[in-house]
Amino acid sequence: MAEFTVGCFIAAAIFISGIICILTYHLRRLQLYIKASKFRGPATVPIAGNALQFLGNNEEIVQKMIEFSQSYPSPYRIWLGPELLIMVSRPEDVKKIISSDKMIEKSSLYRFFRPWLGDGLLSAPAAIWRIHRKLIGPTFNLKILESFVSVFAAQSCIMVKKMETELNGGEFLVFKYVSLCAMDIICETAMGVSMGAQSNNNSEYIETGEKTFAIIYQRVFKVWLQPDAIFHRTRLGREQNKYLNVLHGFTNNVIQRKKEVLMSKNDHKYDTDDSLPPRRKAYLDLLMDLTDNQMKFTDQELREEVDTMIVAGYDTTSNTICSVLLMLASHPDVQEKAYRELEEIYASNKVEEHGVTHEDLSRMEYLERVIKETMRLFPIAATLSRKVTEDFDVGEYTLPKGSIIGIDIIHMHRSQEFWPDPLTFDPDRFLPQEIAKRHPYVYVPFSAGPRNCIGSRFAMMEMKTVVATILRRYVIKKNKITPIADIKLKSDVVLKTADPIKLRIEERISYGQF
Fold first, then answer.
1. How buried is residue 333: exposed, middle or buried, by Cβ count under 10 Å (0-12/13-18/19+)?
2. Closest CA to 245 of 205, 280, 293
3. Which residues partner with 45 through β-bridges?
4. How far is the C-alpha of 205 from the C-alpha of 231, rounded, in Å?
5. Residue among 86, 49, 79 at smallest CA distance from 395
6. How far is it, in rounded angstroms, from Cα 83 to Cα 227?
7. What sections of 29-108 are H helices per DSSP?
8. Model pLDDT for residues 118-154, shown as the tens digit of each residue
9. Is there a contact between 329 and 476 (Cβ–Cβ < 8 Å)?
10. Whole-number Å distance between alpha carbons of 495 and 410
11. Fold held by 30-513
């Protein structure tokens, strides 16, 4: 009897302690709840908030977010379990948020990237990001980027040569060609080592990265997967651990290859002379200098930044290039106009005889507008998120401390309020006189403000080179053209079409006279 009484007492004590902990937790968040109540949003249920509305796959999650944005004017709120997410899409509000030094802390949702990317630039806390961004910035100066264009061109030529097997055939997955090309480009330029992904048809890293991104996106919206103790005991957790071994193994191989190159002193393609100032060194060269000589980067930080740069260098550009090709195939008049611009630049020179040069890129004005219009409709990310570390006033409302701000890029880029006929593909929206009419923060495909994409110029130069090389060689076609309004989207962190992009290619009749 005594033992039963003691057991009951212990159970009651545990129960009461639990109640006290829960009450204390919510009392501390009382101001957050009060301020959150001022924002409109979808109906919630206790504990889960709106999380149960994101039970579907990644395509259904994106569609649900689009539906919310169409139903609730900016700003509106979503509760993902205990996390308060406030979605913003008014350009003036976006400007104030992402231009402020007080709003550069990435949200807690970025913690799901850390097993893969650690504290690389994408996911690093603000204190680490400030230091690393300052150190890495010089590797993206224009002189270095100009030297990379010859690599962009050479790898693009390899890609179109490999595409010959698809010539005059049926539709094929363009991503497998473009992603391998982008992987070779990022490794040979920023890393200074040749990995031969196209030559070896080695797509293991790319396929594994896609799967890992998909898992990360699931964790963001499915709150029951967010605690590590639960996640790592699930099938997804075990799969992610397996994938991370592959991804980190690839990165370690890149770093080891670079060390061997430096030790053998056979790397004459890039400027790795220690007597030259850091601004002339490429990305991995500088990072290794900072690691070996000045001890500003640890070995782990080196790998995390390399992980980040590789994945950012191939995944974002590959998916955008594929979207550009889809738009060109879907709009033959636009494709013809882009081709004629290239014809003016290259006259009768073939791709193999005259690859793209840095000087050529500045003349591809229409092609650049095509890429920008594609990134309006298919931005790299559907949303950006920031952590609110202190109450932040934006217009007539206050973003409460402890909340997460979501910049609703996809809604802003496709809003009738800012873009006439928003789902019509029109590259001339990006003529200088048209840009001048719009708010500068209504279009932010590479983010903006202090924490914008460090590789945006690199990406645009690469995309123009790759697309131009394809257009000079092939006519891109689509068997059945789907209206933009009917193209379903999904997000594996990077926004993309739900159905993989399949196109077919034909030889350009005028290629021999190009």
1. exposed
2. 205
3. 49
4. 23
5. 86
6. 13
7. 30-36, 58-71, 91-98
8. 999 889 999 999 988 988 888 888 888 899 999 999 9
9. yes
10. 9
11. Cytochrome p450 (1.10.630)
Q: How far apart are CA 132 and CA 127, in angstroms?
A: 9
Q: What is the value of pTM for the model shown? A: 0.90
Residue 144: CB partners within 8 Å, gap ≥ 6?
A: 279, 280, 281, 282
H-type alpha helices, 163-203: 175-188, 197-200
In the chain, what are the domain boundaries?
30-513
- CA nearest to 107, candidates 128, 121, 124: 124
Residue 35: partners with Cβ closer than 8 Å, 6 or more residues away? 391, 398, 400
Tens-digit pLDDT profile for residues 411-439: 999 999 999 999 999 999 999 999 999 99
393 forms beta bridges with: 398
Q: Quick one: pLDDT at residue 281? A: 63
| pLDDT exceeds cutoff 70 at 275 | no
CB 509 within 8 A of CB 231: no
One DSSP character per residue, 97-157 reads: HHT-GGG-SBPGGGGGGHHHHTTSTTT--HHHHHHHHHHHGGGG-HHHHHHHHHHHHHHHH
Q: What is the pLDDT of residue 25?
A: 63
Whole-angstrom distance, CA of residue 162 vs CA of residue 464: 19
As given in the structure block, the two tokens for residue 329 are: 């195939």
What is the residue whose two structure tokens read 């480009």? 185
In degrees rounded to 5, what are phi and psi of residue 219?
-65, -35
C-alpha distances in Å from residue 2, one per residue of 6, 8, 10, 13, 83: 6, 10, 12, 16, 44
Statement: residue 108 has pLDDT above 80: yes
Tens-place pLDDT, residues 162-182: 999 999 999 999 999 999 999
SS3 506: strand
SS3 63: helix
Q: Is the peptide bond before 75 cis (omega within 30 degrees of 0)?
A: yes
